[in-house]
Design goal:
hydrolase activity; eight-stranded mixed sheet; hydrolase; 322 residues; Rossmann fold; alpha/beta; Alpha/beta hydrolase; DUF1023
Length: 322
């Protein structure tokens, strides 16, 4: 039996993973892009969302009047609401038209949906954190659970901190083969990198990434492309890296896994694309570890009263968590 087969059998027997990949990546342009590109009302082409980077998007909006920006958001809400580099208030305005909610920084209803909401005042925040989730989180499924994590972190960190609940990629469903491979994480890493570059383009503080479960695979692949000051992984199956140095980031890397977390039963291996590599809490990985001994469940790292939440808040505000 090959090493790959051994890994598959070990993982499958441990957690009952299915070999079926159920998720389809969204690669088509957002609805409304064709009308956006055909808009000549400014007397010049509008930036193409598929090729223009966040800095270019920010520069474009800097060259428009308030009246022009509002008109673009009203006529092309699906595009403006998802343009990394567009002004915060304009994205809120565009996405409220689609969702009826305040504080929505991104929203794509296609498939299971992608969404990002802000807890706190992103426009004035001295500190910004992004919570990146793992399996089963989308605009149409369990997003409230992710928002509660962000809300608890923001409350613990204080009013000068904004926390973004970012379900901006197609997450795995359940414990199928998608959760054991990096296919969805690779797409998520590209989207997370663009999202953080968009925050940078509008002058937001460099973020702290809090990456839960499969979200830590996303953050591991995105690490080299973001300007995060810290990357905190919790309940991680691995980051697709042998050591923290392999992430090629200047961010401080932190790791926490509860002794009661079922993720500990997953083999920390990577072979021919299956598995996610070294446990980030392993001393050989080189991350700074946090005490998670009082965390009762895989989903409880942000629970009120845990040592992990207190540590996360300290990291989010640039303090010492120990």
């Amino acid at each position: 039996m090959t090493a790959l087969a051994l890994v598959a059998v070990a993982v499958g027997r441990t957690l009952g993973w299915s070999p079926v990949s159920a998720q389809t990546l969204l690669t088509a342009p957002l609805p409304g892009v064709e009308a956006w590109l055909a808009d000549t009302s400014l007397g010049r082409p509008l930036p193409d969302p598929s090729t223009a980077g966040p800095a270019e998007i920010a520069a474009f909006f800097d060259g428009t009047t308030e009246r022009q920006r509002v008109r673009l958001a009203e006529e092309h809400p699906a595009v403006v609401g998802n343009l990394d580099g567009a002004p915060i208030g304009l994205r809120y305005r565009a996405n409220k038209a689609a969702t009826g909610r305040d504080g929505v920084l991104a929203y794509d209803p296609r498939g299971r949906g992608r969404i990002a909401t802000v807890i706190g005042d992103l426009a004035t925040a001295a500190h910004v954190s992004i919570v990146v989730p793992g399996s089963d989180i989308s605009a149409s499924s369990r997003f409230g659970r992710l928002e509660r994590m962000a809300e608890r972190l923001q409350k613990e960190a204080g009013e000068d901190t904004a926390v973004i609940a970012w379900a901006g990629y197609t997450t795995p469903e359940g414990l199928g083969i998608d959760a054991a491979t990096g296919r969805l994480a690779e797409d998520g890493a590209e989207r997370l990198t663009l999202f953080t570059r968009g925050l940078d383009a509008i002058g937001a503080p460099d973020p702290v990434l809090f990456c839960h479960s499969y979200g830590s695979v996303v953050c591991g692949l995105a690490a080299a492309g973001t300007d995060a000051t810290d990357i905190v992984v919790l309940g991680s199956p691995g980051m697709r890296a042998g050591t923290a140095a392999d992430l090629r980031t200047d961010a401080t890397v932190w790791a926490a896994t509860s002794p009661r977390d079922w993720i500990r039963r997953i083999p920390h291996v990577e072979f021919l694309g299956l598995g996610h590599g070294t446990d980030p809490t392993d001393p050989a990985f080189g991350a700074r570890t946090l005490d998670a001994s009082r965390v009762p469940l895989h989903s409880a790292y942000f629970d009120t009263g845990t040592t992990t939440l207190a540590a996360f808040a300290a990291i989010a505000t640039g303090g010492d968590p120990r």
